[in-house]
Amino acid sequence: MPKLHMAAQHLTAALLLCEVVMEILSWVPAKPVTRLKLVCKSWNSIISHPHFVKLHLHRSPKNAILLLTLTPALTLDEEEKWGLALTSVESFIQNPSSTLDAQENRHSLHGQDWVSGSCNGLVCVARFLCQPNNDIGDIWFRLLNPLTGFVSENSPCLRVNVHNSFGFGYDESSDSYKVVTVIPDSSGTVTAQVYSFGGSSWKTINSFPAFPFFPEDINGHFIGGTLNWLGLRNPHGADYDWADVTLDMLMIVSFDLKSDTHKQILLPKGIDEIPGQKPILGVWRNSLYLLHDYKNTHFIAWQMKEFGDENSWTQLLKISFHHLGVERLFPAFIFENGNIFMLIGRHRFEVVFYDRRDNSVKHINILANNRYVIAFDYVESLVQPC
To answer: Do 300 and 191 share a structural domain?
Structure first.
């Protein structure tokens, strides 16, 4: 009996030690914690456990961004190349050019790849293949974790046209990652195809109510278990003239990844006329943003403070193009809880950062030589779904 009691004490002590080690390691940044798996078998077991992975994700710093960059071909024999660069918000804003040129934390993608979203440290990459001068082709998706090097198996192939919008997010109810492809046809009918990674087939959702803008809002925005697009009601296909669009045609479609259902979110009541340029949606942390111009003279940003509550739309700022030092601009990304806005200048070779906290404006030429940049909210993680 004393031996049994002693064994129980040893087991209890071992479990307590394991919990202490797990608690300490869960606060270590993602990159060094992956190296700590080599310390011993017990640490490798702790760090690889699904419970630890979720705990570590919850505690990971939320100040990283993922940049999708396009490097142009220098010769006729070369191909354009996409790359993923991981950086902090502060580093990118202070020195964007150095961030894009740095080789550290950079990952190469195929020239036919496209990032369709980022969630919980995973990046969803689409590859579209079609014959020259043909709008119809095959597309499939895979997941990768730039930090751990994890790459998932490809999704089943899907036959689509080039005018598609994508979305990637996490369904907490089923602990699954899903990609959604929104597909219009020439008659104006829009359907959605949903794939859950690890599954064997796509699920068709008929009567999708709107056609997302292409290419301005090609990717759906993930927030609160939903993917959200800004699009047009009954546009009769991708070939439409913005000059013919009316305010009542604009709508936000929110797709619930748990139920595979969609609903409409109303635009802010303060929008009383159609913007001169196509508006876009944005997400930073737990807020949805709507960005647009006003009479081609001002930039306006709205924030939905409580996602899903249409009465919580609040106008964050209205600032003149003159103050920003541009004649025309295109919204690109939001940083720091809606305080810093990244905008693309008229000729798409100049990036403008506006900080509403001190009303400051910073101009950076980072699109020289046809370099293309798209930013995604990102968190480093150890997530590697089955």
So the answer is: yes
